[in-house]
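User: I would dearly like some help making sense of a protein record. I have put the entry right below:
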Amino acid sequence: MNRKVRWGILSTAAIGCEKVIPAMQRGDWSEISAIASRDRNRANEAAQRLGIARAYGSYEELLAAPDIEAIYNPLPNHLHVPWTIRAAEAGKHVLCEKPIGLNADEARQLLATQDRTGMKIQEAFMVRTHPQWLETRELIRSGRIGDLRAINGFFSYFNRDPENIRNQPALGGGALLDIGCYPVNLSRFVFGMEPRRVLALIDRDPELGTDRLTSAVLDFPNGQASFTCSTQLVGYQRMQLCGTRGRIEVEIPFNAPPDKATRIFIHDGSDLAGKNAEVREFPICDQYTIQGDLFSRAILENHEPVVSLTDSVRNMRVIDALFRSAAAGAWETI
């Protein structure tokens, strides 16, 4: 029987209570031992509903618990860095939701904190653990579609609620930070290198002030990646990776469902309608379960997490450059 890492959850945020906590509870290496909220009643309700043994009425109480080894931080974006620092300084490893911070300078603070405290800190890009993306990257590396030259992505949903944190600029809301970070990260992951320069076009909501529609181009040494993300379009997501001899289409690239198989399509270009595509289907799995267990194992076995903080800093540097490009109306170097 594996020894499980004892986790504490920092807040009753929806992403944690609805997706991440139930998934981690099904893991082989992770045990959710406690949850905290600034409202004790809310913490008690979440603990009872999710079968968590302990509830705390403050984040400080959770961080002071001596038996808690790791913290999952799903707080609003502007609180990712300060509470991750506090958790690490309290002797806890931290899995922090994306984006790791509001900019690269904030992410660098976490690098310094990790070095100072010896605690492991990882950005929760769960997509990097899903078999469909590991297989896609391996197919590209093996030359299955020739030389990768272009990646195109799309990620959108519709939410214009002014009370929602995703629509509040001061809290790090907006399309690019919330969901554009995914195609940025996966493009870097698949190309296996960093873009040299970027170009972005942003349309902001005149009332909310957030970027509601962002399109971008990332110029890599070996090709280009482009994507569009939006908080005010019909919900849709897809990524296509095109090479000199074929292409791969990832059907549900970001929010891979935990209750049904996922698929990628490998096209050789012989039929534009895609009827001759090879379909690879991946068994049902939950990328949040995989992510949690991999981080727990990194703690127990004392090795580097799947997504390093150095990688997270580089991802934020690209996002920073995209914001600068949109403001300047020109290409920006990384």
Summary: Residues 297 and 303 are 8 Å apart (CA to CA).
